[in-house]
Amino acid sequence: MEGDQRFTQPHQERPTLRGIYFTVLRPSLAEFWGVFFLTFGLYSSSALLEAEKPPQPQPGGDPGGFVGTIAVVFLYIGIYSITRSISGGHLNPIITLIQMGRKATFPLVGVCYLGAHLLGAVLGALSVEAITEVSPASQSLKPFFGTGHAIFGEMIGTAIVILAYLTLANQSKGNTAILGIGFGYAGALLAVHSAASGYLNPVLNFGIAVASGTWTKHYVYWVGTALGGIIATILHGLIFASDDQLWIKSRNYVPERIA
C-alpha cells in the first residue's frame, strides 16, 4: 500500500510495544496466515484428488491439478481482500521485494513479510501432511515441457499478476483492485499452470517442496517469478504507472484524457 505510513516509514518517536504491533507484527501475521491458508487450500485439494483416484504411476506430479488451480484463485481473491488494508496484501515474496525496492515498504517490515511467507507456506503444507493419510503429489515439470518453457510461462504469468497489483493495489481502487487483481491472477494461472505446475508465487511451491521432499528443478519457480517481477516493474514504471509515478517525466507535457 504505497503512501501508507505504517509500511513505508519508521516511527519518528520512540517505538512502543503498541507501535511495533500495529506497524510490524500485525501486518506480518496477516501475511503469514494469508500464505498459510493459500498453501493449505492448494495442498489439501491435492490430497483429496489423490484419495479419490486409484493408485497408478503418474509421469508428472501436479498438486491439485485443475481443482487446485481454481481453489488457489478463489482463496487468493478472498485472502487478498481481507489482508489488503492490514498488510497491503502482498502474499508473495516477489511483490514484497519489489515494494521494498520502490520504497513502498519499509525494509524491516519487508524482511518480516518474507519470513512470514516462507514460514506460512511450510506450515500450511506440513499441516496437510499431518491430517491426511494420503501423500499429496509433489509439483514437477510436465514431461512434454522443458525447463526453458516452464521458466518462460512462470515469467509471463507472474508479470501479468504483479503488473495488475502495482497498477491497481497502489491506487486505492477498492473493489476494482480486488476484482482486477483476482481476475488477472486467475487468467494468468489458468493460461500457464500446465507448463510447470507453478502458481506464480514461489513460496507456494516452496512449502509443497518441503512437505513432499521433492526439489527437482525447484529453481524454475524462483527464477521465472523473479524475471516476471522485473518485467512487471519496468512496464509499470515506463507505461502503466500513474502520471506522477512514471519514471520518465516531462515538465511541459499535460496528458490528454480519453473521454
UniProtKB/TrEMBL annotation:
InterPro entries: Aquaporin-like, Aquaporin_transptr, MIP. One of its GO terms (molecular function) is water channel activity. It is a multi-pass membrane protein. The keyword Metal-binding does not apply. Signal peptide: none annotated. Keywords: Membrane, Repeat, Transmembrane, Transmembrane helix, Transport. It is found in: Endomembrane system. GO terms for cellular component: cytoplasm; endomembrane system; membrane. The keyword Electron transport does not apply. GO terms for biological process: one-carbon compound transport. Belongs to the MIP/aquaporin (TC 1.A.8) family. This is Probable aquaporin TIP-type. The lineage of its organism: Eukaryota, Metazoa, Cnidaria, Anthozoa, Octocorallia.
